[in-house]
């Protein structure tokens, strides 16, 4: 955790930095300069070349700049997807995935070291939960990848390691910082947040009326199936989750994206498609069918192409918007459900 003697400055809003620097006797315009440097991804106060020495020394005494150092990078031979293993300030590790599309670059970032949700098809939860990430560490994943590839990232997906809404306060602050014009200047409509269905936190999020895309990991149309693959369903069952989703779309006027991993013999039958279509009827939503990716511990096998197409056809025939996701980075274990830090953390496991 952060030692109490210093603060995590990259997690602070511009007005918070300004208030503290003015209280310390520095001119108000210096805060704008400092925030500008932080948004450019500097890793030390010495890199702030237009800041006077006395202020740099003060910042060094009072604050940390938390980054994300590249421990390892893997590049897919098939589609140039890049998977990063980032080392954090305490020696723990997280993974992020950089993807190139026609519209530009998108990055899938982590929000926790590990995960508490323990979904049966996902690699991340197999190693347990270690800690939440700070807003600065989420920002740093984006900044480091941009600097490494000399690019501008325009789209961000919070779908890496961890459950974003299980780290609610830090994720909300990250979203506010990332959207600032003087910061990364990311459009909220270009940010997707994925959740396994923490209904209480979803209800909080809808009050913010953010224009991001909420992606809900549904993966089953019935409690009988979802109970077996997603422990969260015992707290918030399918009907409770879907009712919350309906309220969310009404409150935000934003379409929800339902993620649905196609697992052979588990959730891919025509009957499952029929039940799913009936439950989503009339909702402002889109279903994203995702071929299950290999996770050795799960033993699950992805549905074959014909089964997936038939499933999609049933949904489409019932008036449900549906697509079959293209798999990126599967040769470097960078696809959905495959992120897992295999490195030994000095500060953790």
Task: Describe the 3D structure.
The strands form three sheets. The chain has a ten-stranded mixed sheet with strand order 3-4-5-6-9-10-11-12-13-14. Strands 1-2 form a two-stranded parallel sheet. Residues 344-349 have low confidence and may be disordered. It is α/β, with parallel strands linked by helices. The protein has helices at residues 14-23, 28-39, 53-62, 135-149, 168-179, 199-208, 223-229, 238-252, 270-280, 305-317, and strands at residues 7-8, 63-64, 69-75, 82-87, 93-101, 104-109, 112-114, 129-132, 153-158, 191-195, 213-217, 256-262, 285-291, 322-324. The longest helix is centred in the middle third of the chain and has 15 residues, at 135-149. The protein contains ten helices and 14 strands.
Brief overview:
The chain has helices spanning 14-23, 28-39, 53-62, 135-149, 168-179, 199-208, 223-229, 238-252, 270-280, 305-317; strands at 7-8, 63-64, 69-75, 82-87, 93-101, 104-109, 112-114, 129-132, 153-158, 191-195, 213-217, 256-262, 285-291, 322-324.
Give structural attributes.
10-stranded mixed beta sheet, 349 residues, 33% helix, two-stranded parallel ribbon, alpha/beta
The helix content, as a percent range, equals 25-40%
Terminal Cα separation, in Å? Answer: 15 Å
| Discrete helix count | 10
Spatial strand arrangement across the major sheet = 3-4-5-6-9-10-11-12-13-14
Mean pLDDT, as a whole number? 92
C-alpha Rg (nearest Å) = 21 Å
* Uncertain ranges: 344-349
SS content category: alpha/beta
Instruction: Please provide the count of β strands.
Output: 14
- Main β-sheet description: 10 strands, mixed
What proportion strand? Answer: 15-25%
Which of globular, elongated, flat, extended, rod-shaped describes the shape? Answer: elongated
State the order of secondary-structure elements, H for helix, E for strand. EHHHEEEEEEEHEHEHEHHEHEHE
